[in-house]
């Protein structure tokens, strides 16, 4: 199986799509048959580099090709029907996070994939970064005990974002869905789904009427897991120069675990057992690991699918709860959303 390759195509050649294309070539697991982007010049340039067909119409790529799998970096609003057509043609799917614009839309993909016996994975490259893997392993092995608080802080660049990301109908959400999905995933990868979610979300539009028609650029989310365990997520987009700043702190009895970029720190109250780990992997390396994992799960069907679309319904239920809470002003229950969906969520797959 290790010598086999998967015939594939890539939808969407934005920054993440180009990174995905480079990773697909480098892994040696894929034969790139076609690429597509609504920018025809972008598609032709990428196709010339890897010797494949170029398309500016996603539908034509799906209709005119028979593939083992489809790699999707395009935004959901631009490829929803094409994704469904690919599932009906029994292409296995790897879609970069987020899975969809809403929980209901994600659930529809899951049901279709299960009906067609298609493997549908959600690509979150952060799961394959050394720092995140090390932190999760440390939590799983009891390196930090009696966790009572998780604090996540995300300060993100607002510059150079496409105009459509301001439209709730096209995007489904703003900073929470499109910038903080990996953070929510990291929390739920290590801990159970919260019992309640309460959220506030705003944007910087000059008046209240305009705010109704724009996605949020600032949000505060509180999650209550038990009476003795909670999490807070604070996120904002800022018009500033410099890198994004993301940190996660996990507070346990007598110790604090911090993930910041490629650095993981374990600090103890007495200071005698403090430890620090520094990693040097980057976004491209994480993407290559992600694609290699997906390829092996397709080539070896009895191997668990890392980050399946069904598993990601848990993340989408939490985000759906946050957006609903921001509208109603009351805490919401993610488990209730999952129960209404028919209990399709599964426990996290292991790497």
Give an account of the 3D structure:
With 351 residues, the chain is of the alpha/beta class. It folds into two domains: 6-96 and 120-125 and 285-299, Rossmann fold (3-Layer(aba) Sandwich), CATH 3.40.50.720; 127-280 and 313-340, Dihydrodipicolinate Reductase, domain 2, CATH 3.30.360. 38% of the residues lie in helices and 25% in strands. It contains 13 helices and 14 strands. The chain has helices at residues 15-27, 40-50, 58-64, 76-88, 103-116, 130-140, 168-171, 175-179, 181-190, 208-211, 283-299, 313-328, 334-340; strands at residues 6-11, 30-36, 53-55, 69-72, 92-96, 120-123, 149-157, 196-202, 218-226, 229-238, 245-252, 255-260, 263-268, 275-278. α5 links the parallel β5 and β6 (120-123). 44% of the residues are buried.
As residue ranges, the low-confidence spans are 343-351
- SS element count, helices: 13
Assembly category: single chain
Overall structural class, as computed from helix and strand content, comes to alpha/beta
Q: Got a strand count?
A: 14
Kindly report how far apart the N and C termini lie. Answer: 19 Å
Domain module count: 2
What is the gyration radius calculated from CA atoms? 20 Å
Kindly provide the name of the CATH class of the largest domain. Alpha Beta
Q: Can you summarize this structure?
A:
The chain is α/β, with parallel strands linked by helices and about 350 residues long. About 40% of the residues lie in helices and about 25% in strands.
